[in-house]
Design goal:
CATH architecture of the domain at 2-64 and 97-108 in chain B: 2-Layer Sandwich
Shape of chain A: globular
CATH class of the domain at 2-64 and 97-108 in chain B: Alpha Beta
Shape of chain B: elongated
CATH topology of the domain at 2-64 and 97-108 in chain B: hypothetical protein PF0899 fold
CATH topology of chain A: Rossmann fold
Number of strands of chain B: 6
Strand content of chain A: 15-25%
Structural class of chain B: alpha+beta
Number of strands of chain A: 8
Helix content of chain B: 10-25%
Distance between the termini of chain B: 26 Å
Largest sheet of chain B: 3 strands, mixed
Radius of gyration of chain B: 18 Å
Number of helices of chain A: 9
Structural class of chain A: alpha/beta
Number of helices of chain B: 2
Order of helices and strands of chain B: HEHEEEEE
Largest sheet of chain A: 7 strands, parallel
Helix content of chain A: 25-40%
Oligomer: heterodimer
CATH architecture of chain A: 3-Layer(aba) Sandwich
Distance between the termini of chain A: 69 Å
Radius of gyration of chain A: 19 Å
Order of helices and strands of chain A: EHEHEHEHEEHHEHHEH
Strand order of the largest sheet of chain A: 4-3-5-2-6-7-8
Strand content of chain B: 25-35%
Chain lengths: ~220, ~110
């Protein structure tokens, strides 16, 4: 007789099951509040906050918007949003390279979103991990700057694949960076045939109206 | 990810009154977003001080498989993923390769 028994417990549990459960609870809370939750993701410096500022300006007084900002450190992004007169709440993740559903759930305890038509959750700048952690959002929107190169959708397919919309930002810089918008668009399309793709420039304002019009159509009616 | 795996395995161990976790087996899709080497490394660090302090991590990598609903299996690689069917141009679905799950946990009782 052996002194200890080994028991095999087979379960096929998703590794991120806890995150998925909390994300589902957040999702239901957003739906009950009739607020469109948007998870905004990108690499650092692709222009998430600039896109957000341009989007908030374009939505103007028409829609009530709120913002949850995720960064490792500082309240700089929340400060930029507050400067526009838009309610914002900053999450500092410390060393964690993505937001998760628990962080958002905790933020919601301090930052009620029931009065908003749309809630933007700006994720930590990172082209990899945020794509794995659902937050309870209805839309995943990715900001990609053309200066990052046309090959990135192929190199980092998951975030592109999981996004409902991909904004190709900084198109005003296309003449200077040797990137083909056609090739970039084709590469996005190949890893995500369903994504809505919007070439935009926060600097010139080009394409912002088309993106905001698409977004506005996703906001639930009264 | 390593912490999530350990948390789930430890919950299982506690529920069943196990004294230690001998092994944890996971299925890791090629397109799960998690890299095998990184997971192995972080597991070795994170297991210290847990019931899985001496546990092995058995990783089964699930290859990417894609399929066109109209034309059948479509060859694909993660190095050049294309989800448009080369024959009909339609959308290709990911049939396997997104897995990130615990298959089983071996507990010492």
């Amino acid at each position: 007789m052996s002194t200890s028994n080994v028991e095999r417990v087979a379960n096929a549990t998703p590794v991120l099951v806890r995150n998925q459960e909390l994300a589902a609870a957040n999702y239901l809370a957003f739906e009950a509040d009739r607020v469109l939750a948007v998870n905004l993701m990108s690499a650092p410096g692709a222009g998430k906050t600039s896109v957000l500022e341009a989007t908030l300006r374009a939505l103007g007084g028409k829609r009530r918007a709120g913002v949850i900002e995720g960064d490792l450190e500082t309240t700089r992004d929340a400060d930029r949003i507050l400067a526009l007169g838009i309610p914002a709440h900053q999450i500092n993740t410390g060393t964690v390279c993505h937001l998760d559903a628990r962080m958002v759930s905790r933020a919601l305890e301090q930052f009620p979103v029931g009065g908003f038509d749309v809630l933007f959750i700006e994720n930590v700048g990172n082209l990899v991990c945020p794509a794995e952690f659902d937050l309870g959002e209805r839309l995943r929107v990715m900001v990609f700057s053309v200066t990052e190169g046309a090959d990135k959708p192929k190199k980092y397919p998951l975030m592109f694949h999981r996004s409902h919309a991909v904004l190709l930002n900084k198109i005003d810089l296309l003449p200077y960076c040797g990137v083909s918008l056609e090739e970039l668009t084709r590469n996005v399309r190949e890893v995500n045939p369903d994504a809505a793709i919007f070439p935009v420039s926060c600097r010139t304002g080009e394409g912002i109206a088309e993106w905001v019009s698409w977004l506005d159509a996703q906001i639930p009616g009264e | 990810m390593a912490l999530s795996i350990l948390e789930l395995a430890e919950d299982e161990a506690r529920q069943r009154g196990a004294t230690a976790i001998r092994a944890i087996a996971v299925r890791l899709g090629e397109m799960s977003g998690v890299v095998r080497d990184a997971l192995e490394f972080s597991f070795e660090v994170a297991r210290n001080g847990t019931l899985a302090g001496a546990a092995s991590l058995e990783i089964e990598v699930v290859p990417l498989a894609t399929r066109c609903p109209a034309c059948g299996d479509v060859p694909n690689t993660l190095h050049d993923l294309c989800l448009l069917c080369p024959d009909c141009g339609g959308r290709v679905e990911i049939a396997a390769g997104r897995e990130l799950e615990i298959r089983y946990v071996d507990l010492e009782c």
